[in-house]
C-alpha cells in the first residue's frame, strides 16, 4: 500500500514500552553501554506506560479501527483510499468539474476556470501557468468539446504536480533519523503516530522522541501513540527539547532501531526565537549522528490554503526541508495549494491525509490526486 523503497534488512524486533528504563531492548547486545546524555543530570524518561491523556487529547484507540473493519486486499485498500480521497477533495472538485458540464469553449470558460483555481488556492502563478498551457493545447490540438478540454487540464495538472511525487526511502541509514516540524494544530503528533504504525508494517523498528516540551499534553499524546504501537518514547518531564532529540538518537544507535522520529514544538514561522530553537534541535541531532537528520519534514494543515505556502517557505529557509506531509484535506475547498507549492517551492510531498484513521494517510500520487480533483 505504501510506496516506500528500502534495502532488505534483517528484521529487528520493536522495543516494547512495557519494560523499565534499564531493561534491554530485544535484539540488542546485553553488554551495550547506556546512551550518553546531552545535558548532565537530565536523564530522559523512557515511557513504560501511557499516562492518562489530558482533556482534549485524542485517544489513539479511536484512530485505529479493528483490523476486521479494514479492506483486506491491496485492490480493496486502493478503492477505499480513492473513495476517501475523492470525498475529501469533493468541495474543491465540485468548483472545478462543474465548469465543464455542457460548457462552450470560449473566453467565459477560461475566466470561470481562473476564478475556480484561485478560489482553490492554486495561486496566481500556478493559475496563469495552467491557463496559458491549456489555451495553447486547445489551439494546437483543435479541441472542440468540454470533455476534451477537461482531459487536457487534467494532464497539465498531473505534469505540474509530478515533481512533488517522491517516495520516502527507508533503510538508507541505521537509524534513519526524521525531524518533524509544523505549526500547532496541523496534526503533527497524530501524523507521527500513524507513520510509526505504517513503518512497522515494513518491518521497521521505531523509536519516538517527545521533543514538543511546549504544548500542554503533547508529551502525553505521543505516549498514547507509543503504547498503542508498542513503541518506546524518549521524553522528559521538562527540559531542553534538543537534549531529548540527542538522547533519542543516541538510544536509537545503541539499540539498533531502524527509525527515530523526533517530534518538535509547534510554532509559527513568525516566532523567530522559536524558529532559532528548531535550528538548534537540528544542529544537536547532527552532533548525535553525522548527516542526521536524514529527513526534515513539515506537517501542513491543508485547510490553511495560501498560508501553507508561507509556512513551506519559512520552514524551508530555516531547516532545508526534505519533504512535506499535508493533512486534513478532507472537507477543504483549498486542495489547489499543492499547485502553488509545485510552482513556488517544490518540496516533495511524501504523504497526504484525508481523515483521522490510520489508512487515511497515504503516499502522495500526482495522478491519483488529480483524478480525485477533476474526476
UniProtKB/TrEMBL annotation:
Keyword 4Fe-4S among UniProt keywords: no
Q: What is this protein called?
A: Signal recognition particle receptor FtsY
Catalysed transformations (reactions): GTP + H2O = GDP + phosphate + H(+)
- Which residue ranges have biased composition labelled Low complexity? 15-31
**Subunit and interaction comment:** Part of the signal recognition particle protein translocation system, which is composed of SRP and FtsY. SRP is a ribonucleoprotein composed of Ffh and a 4.5S RNA molecule.
EC number(s) per entry? 3.6.5.4
What this chain does, per the entry, is described as: Involved in targeting and insertion of nascent membrane proteins into the cytoplasmic membrane. Acts as a receptor for the complex formed by the signal recognition particle (SRP) and the ribosome-nascent chain (RNC). Interaction with SRP-RNC leads to the transfer of the RNC complex to the Sec translocase for insertion into the membrane, the hydrolysis of GTP by both Ffh and FtsY, and the dissociation of the SRP-FtsY complex into the individual components.
Highest rank taxon of the organism = Bacteria
Family note:
Belongs to the GTP-binding SRP family. FtsY subfamily.
Amino acid at each position: 500500500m505504501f510506496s516506500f523503497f528500502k534495502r532488505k534488512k534483517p528484521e529487528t524486533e520493536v522495543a516494547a514500552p512495557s519494560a523499565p528504563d534499564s531493561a534491554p531492548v530485544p535484539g540488542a547486545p546485553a553488554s551495550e553501554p547506556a546512551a550518553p546524555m546531552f545535558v548532565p543530570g537530565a536523564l530522559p524518561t523512557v515511557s513504560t506506560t501511557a499516562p492518562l491523556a489530558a482533556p482534549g487529547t485524542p485517544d489513539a484507540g479511536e484512530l485505529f479501527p479493528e483490523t476486521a473493519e479494514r479492506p483486506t486486499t491491496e485492490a480493496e485498500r486502493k478503492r477505499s483510499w480513492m473513495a476517501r480521497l475523492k470525498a475529501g477533495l469533493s468541495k474543491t472538485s465540485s468548483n472545478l468539474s462543474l465548469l465543464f458540464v455542457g460548457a462552450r469553449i470560449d473566453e467565459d470558460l477560461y475566466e470561470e476556470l481562473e476564478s475556480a483555481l484561485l478560489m482553490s488556492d492554486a495561486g496566481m502563478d500556478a493559475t496563469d501557468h495552467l491557463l496559458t498551457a491549456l489555451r495553447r493545447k486547445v489551439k494546437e490540438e483543435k479541441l472542440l468539446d468540454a470533455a476534451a478540454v477537461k482531459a487536457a487540464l487534467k494532464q497539465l495538472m498531473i505534469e505540474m504536480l509530478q515533481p512533488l511525487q517522491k517516495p520516502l526511502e527507508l533503510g538508507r541509514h541505521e537509524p534513519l533519523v526524521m525531524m518533524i516540524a509544523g505549526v500547532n494544530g496541523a496534526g503533527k503528533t497524530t501524523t507521527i503516530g500513524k507513520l510509526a504504525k505504517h513503518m512497522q508494517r515494513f518491518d521497521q523498528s521505531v523509536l519516538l522522541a517527545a521533543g514538543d516540551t511546549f504544548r500542554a499534553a503533547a508529551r502525553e499524546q505521543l505516549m498514547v501513540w507509543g503504547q498503542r504501537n508498542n513503541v518506546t518514547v524518549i521524553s522528559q518531564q521538562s527540559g531542553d527539547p534538543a537534549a531529548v532529540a540527542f538522547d533519542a538518537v543516541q538510544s536509537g544507535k545503541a539499540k539498533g532501531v531502524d527509525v527515530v522520529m523526533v517530534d518538535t514544538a509547534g510554532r509559527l514561522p513568525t516566532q523567530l526565537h522559536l524558529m532559532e530553537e528548531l535550528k538548534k534541535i537540528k544542529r544537536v541531532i547532527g552532533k548525535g549522528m553525522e548527516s542526521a537528520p536524514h529527513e526534515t519534514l513539515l506537517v501542513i494543515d491543508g485547510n490553511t490554503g495560501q498560508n501553507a505556502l508561507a509556512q513551506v517557505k519559512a520552514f524551508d529557509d530555516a531547516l532545508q526541508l526534505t519533504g512535506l506531509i499535508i493533512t486534513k484535506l478532507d472537507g477543504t475547498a483549498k486542495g489547489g495549494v499543492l499547485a502553488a507549492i509545485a510552482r513556488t517551492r517544490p518540496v516533495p510531498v511524501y504523504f497526504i491525509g484525508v481523515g483521522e484513521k490510520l489508512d487515511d494517510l497515504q503516499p502522495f500520487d500526482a495522478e491519483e490526486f488529480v483524478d480525485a480533483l477533476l474526476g
